[in-house]
Model the fold of this input.
Amino acid sequence: MDINVPQQLVNALWLGGLYSLFALGYALIFSVLGLLNLSHSAVFACGAFVGLYTACGDEVFTTTCTELDRPIWIVIPAAMIGAGIVSVAVDRVAFWPLRKRNAPRMNQLISSIGAAALLVNLLQIQFGAAQQRFPFGSIPNDPVSGLPVVITPIQITALVIALGLMFALRILVKRTRLGREMRTVAFNERVASLLGVNVDRTYMTAFFIAGALAGAAGMMYGLAFNSMTPFMGESVSLKGLTVIVLGGLGSIEGAVIGGFLIAAIEVFSVALGRSDIRDAFVFLLLFVILVVRPRGLLGQGVEDRA
Amino acid sequence: MKTLIRTIVVLTFALVAVVPFQVQAQDGGGMGAWDGCPVPENLPEEVTIGAVFGLSGNIAAYGEPQKRGVELAVAEINEAGYLGEGTTLIAVFEDGGSDGEASIAAMDKLIAENELAAVIGPTLSAQAFAADPIAAENGVVVLGVSNTAAGLTTMNEDEELDQFIFRNSLPEANVIPNTITKSTEILGLERVGVIYGNDDDFTLSGYDAFADALEASEVEVVRTETFARGDVDFSPQLTNIINDDPDAIVVSALIAEAVPVVLQARQLGYTGPIIGGNGFNSPALFAQGGEAAEGVIVGAAWNIGSPSELSVTFTETFTEAYGAAPDQFAAQAYTGAWLVATAIRCADSADSADVREALAAIVDYPTPLGSFSFDETRNPVHEPVVQIVQEGMFKLLTEETAAQAFGE
Amino acid sequence: MLELHHVSREFGGLAALCQVKMVVPQGKVVGLIGPNGAGKTTLLNCISGLDSPTSGEIIFDGTPIHSRSPHRITALGVSRTYQNIRLFKEMTTLENVIVGQHIHGRSTLLHSMFVWPYHWREESRLKKDALALLERFNIGSVAHVHAGTLSYGDQRRLEMARALATRPRLVLLDEPTAGMNAVETHQLGEQILRMHADGITVVVVEHDMALIGQVCDEVYVLNFGEMIANGAPQAVKQDPKVIEAYLGHED
Amino acid sequence: MTTLLQIKELQVSYGAIIALRGISFEVHLGQVVSLIGANGAGKSTTINTLSGLIKPRSGQVNFEDQDITGWRADRVTRRGLVQVPEGRQVIAPLTVRENLEMGAYLRRDKAEIEQDIQAVFDRFPRLKERHHQKAGSLSGGEQQMLALGRALVARPKLVMLDEPSMGLAPLLVNEVFAIIRSIKEEGKTILLVEQNARKALEIADYAYVLERGQIRHHGPADELRQNEAIIKAYLG
Done:
C-alpha cells in the first residue's frame, strides 16, 4: 500500500492549525489562572453559533440556514467577539465568585465543567440539537484548482488565520504591557495589585482573548466541516487537553507545537499504520514524552510558576 | 418530460382526493385484496390492539410516522369491513418515551387496561428488549415494526415466550447482502475501499455484514480504515482510500459521521459510488450532505419510489391524509397493522393466543414492502430495496439511475 | 556524626557546591553562614535528601546517605525546617505536629481498624506529646488555629516544633530567625541550646551573627559554593576573608 | 510640616481574631517613619491595610487630605502609596528589565520611564548586568535590590517597605540600609516596617512601637533608642 504523502501533509497541516488555535485559549487561561478552564470547548461551540446567527439571522432558531443575510466573511470576527463576551461571562459567573472566596482550584475546575454543561444546554435550547450548516455554495470549499494536492480556500484561510492569531498572541504576551501584566497576575495577584494592576480587569481581558481564540477556532471548525452542533466542542476538548499537556501547560509556543504535532501523529499513524490504533498511538507518544519530560515539551519549571 | 410527470402526479392526487380511503373499501383493491382467509364470523363488536411508540422527545421523529401508519391502516381496515360487518378494530396508543423504562410502563398500562389481541412496537430495539417480555408473559403477541437488532425474537430463555414476539422490520444483516449483490451487479464493482466506526455496536455489526457480503460477491477490499464516534476529520483515512482508486467506498457509520465522510470524500475529489448501511437512511443525508450525497447508495426495507401497486397506493393515500410523504417507518407500521388485522381475520378470534398462531402462518402476503412471510423464528422475509440518491431524493437503484449518476 | 567529603553539586555546568568538606560532631551546634546564594540551602537539601550531590559522600552515623530518599533519611533521625516555610496551612497547628510524629507512632492502618483501644491510646499519647512541644515553643495557645493564619514568627516556631516531633538526632535549621526581632531571636537561641542540652545535634543556617555567637560551637562559612573558613564563632568573625565576603565592616 | 499620611483609629480583624485595635499615627512629608514591634504585633497588617490588601473594620486612612479608606490595592498604588512586600517578591518568570517595566505599570511617559530605569541600573550595576535574566534566577540580595528599584520606578509619593532586610546576609543588610538612606536623602517619604529595630531606629526620624495591635510607645527615633523599656524589649 503506497501513501499520498503530499496530501497527508496538507491534511496534517491545516488540522494542526485548528488544534493549536483551540489549545491556545486553554494555555492562556492556564498560564493566568493556573487552572484548566473546561468550559473552553463550550465557548468554542458558542463562537460557531454566534457566527452562524450573524450570517443567517433568526432563521437558525427554528430551522437550518438556507440563505445568508450577511456576507460569509463576517462570521469570523463575529464569532471572536461573541465568544469573547461569553468567555468573560463565564469568568464572572463561574470563576470570579470562587476566586473572591479563595476556593480551592478543584472547585473552580468543577465550576468550569458546570459552566460548559450550562452553555451547551443553552445552545441546544436556542438552536436545537440537530446539526446546523451554512447554505450549500456559500462557503468557498471547492478545492483550489491547479495544485497537485487537494486543498480548499477555507482550509487555507483557517491555516493562515490560525498562524496569524498564534503569532499575534505570542507578541502580545511576550512584548506588550498587557502581556507583562498578565504574566505578573499569573505569578502573584497580590504583587500585581501592589504594582497598580487591576487584577479583575486583567482576568476579564485574558478571558476575552481566550474566548475570542476559542470562537475563531470554533468558527473555523464550523466552516471547514460545514457542520455545527451544540456538542461540537466535546471531541476537540480532549484533543486540546492532550495538546497543552504535550506542549507544556501554560506555554503558548508549546500549545502551537503540540497542536501541529498531535495532528501530524494522527494523520500519519493513519497514513502509515492503521487507523484503528490511531488514538492508542497518540496517547502512547504522550505517555512517553511525559515520562521523559514531565512538564511537557516547552513547559516551565515548577519554580517559575510557584 | 417533466411537465408530463407532473401532470400525471397531479391527476393521481386529484383522483385520490375525490375518493379518499374508498379505494381500499372496494372489493379487490388495495390491501384488502388478500383473501387467504374467509370473512370472520365470530368476532366481537370491538377488537382492540395496542401500540407503543416513542411519541415525545426527539424520538418522536420516528414514533409520529409510525402512529400515522397504524392509524391509516386501521381506518382502511374498518372502512373495508375487513374483520366482518359489525366488527370495529380499535388501536390504543401509548407513549413509550425514548428509553426502556418508559416503554415497560407503557406496555404494563396497555395490558392492564385493555383486552388486547396484539401489541405493535416499541420503537427502538433496546425498548423492545425491555418491554416485549412483559407482553409475552401475559400471553399477548407483540409485533415490532422498527426493531432491527439481532436476536430480538429469540431473546428469552423460555422458547414458549419467544413464540409471542414477531417483527416485520428487516434486520440490517438481511438488507446489506442484498445491497452489495445488487450494486455489484449493476455497477460492476471489482475493488472497493471500506471505512467504518470501530467503537459502536451498530456500525461494527454493519461492517461485519458488509465484509461477508463483499467476500460472497467476490469483490476485493483494497483498503479498510476505521474511525471513532465523535470524529470530525476523516481526510487522512479517505486520502488513503482514494489513493487506491477503488470502484466504490463502502461506509458503515451512524448519520453524524456518515455525512462528513461523504462530504470529505467528495471534497477530496472522489466522484464514484458511496455505499452505506442503514445509518444513511435519514433526512439529514440530504439536508446536510446536499450535492455531495448524490450517488450515495443505501439499502432499505422500503423505498418511496418502489413501483409496486400497493406501495404506490400507500404513498398516495398517506400523503393525502397527512400532507407529508411517508417514510420507511410509516410503511413498516402500516404493514404491521395490516398483518395483525389479517391474523385476527384468519384466526376468527380476538384471543391473542389464536392471533399468534394465525400470524405465524402468514405466507406470501402482498404488502407495500413486497410479498411478505414470517420465517420460523418470526423474523420477516421480503425483498429489500436498494436506493440511490439522485436530485436530492432516494430513487431505486437500477441500470438507468446508475447510468445517470455515474455516466456509464 | 555527620561528615561531608568533597561534596559537589552542579546545576547545568554551574557549580553550586564545590568540594565541600564539613564535619559535625555528635551533640554539637554547628553554624553555617555565607552570603545569599552561596549554596547553603543546596547543602541542606543534599543532607536531607531533597537533592543529591553530583559527586562526593555524605556519611550520617557511619551510613552513606547521599543517594537515599528523603523519607529514609528522616527515618534515620534527620529532621529539618525550611527557609520558605512549608506547613500544611489548612491543618491546625496541633495537626501539623501530629503529622510530624507519625513516623514514630507504632499504630498502623491495620491497628487503627481493628485494635482500636491501642490506637486510641496511641493517638492520645501523640496528642499530649504534641501539645507539650507547642508549649515549649510558646505556641500552645494557638494549637487549634489553622497554621496558615499564624504570624510569620509563630509559623517558624511551629516548623521547629514539627521538626522535633520526629524525635530526630540531627536537626537542620534553615534561617530559623528570619522575620524575628532581636529579643525573639535570642529566645529562639535558647530553644536551640535546649535541643543541644537534650543531646540533639544541630546544624543552623543563619544570618544573625548574634544568634550564631549565642548558640554555635563551630561555624562554617560558605561562599560561592566553597568553604572559605571554619572555626569557633569569635575566630571566624575576625577572619578577613569572612568580613570581606559576608560580614562587611561595621560602619 | 505637611502631613502626608494620617491614620485614625484603624481597626482590623481576621474573623474573630483582632489584629489592630484602633491605631492612629501620622507620616509627614520627607520623613522616614518606622513601625517596630514583635511578631504578630500587627506591623505587616498595618502596611497591608494601608496598601488596600486588607479591608479595615473601622477607622480612617487619609492620604494628602483625601480619604482612601477601603480603596482597592491598585487604586492605592495609583494614588502614590507603593509597597515593597516582604520576602523579596519579585516576579520570577519576568526578566529584570520587565520587572522594572512592571514597576512603571501605571505610567505612560515612555521616555521618562526609560530614564528612571537607567537610573535604577546606575544605582544597582549588578541589575544592569543581569537585565535580561529571569528575576527568579537572581540571588536574594539582588532580588531585594530589584524590589526596591521596581518601587522607585513607580515614582511613589510614599514608599512602604515591609521587612527589607529579612533573610539577608549582614553585608547585604548594610547595603540595603545604605540604599534606604540614599532614598531618604533624595527627599522621599518612607514608612518602614523592620524587625531589625536597631537599624530601623538609626535611619528613622520617628517611630511607633506596636504591641498586640496597639501603639505602646512613639516618639522621635533618637529618643526611643535611649528608652530603657524599648532597649530591653526590642534591641536585646
Summary: DSSP finds 15 helices and 15 strands in chain B. Residues 9-30 of chain B have pLDDT under 50 and may be disordered. Chain B touches chain A through 31 residues (CB under 8 Å). The domain at 29-170+307-377 of chain B is CATH 3.40.50.2300 (Rossmann fold).
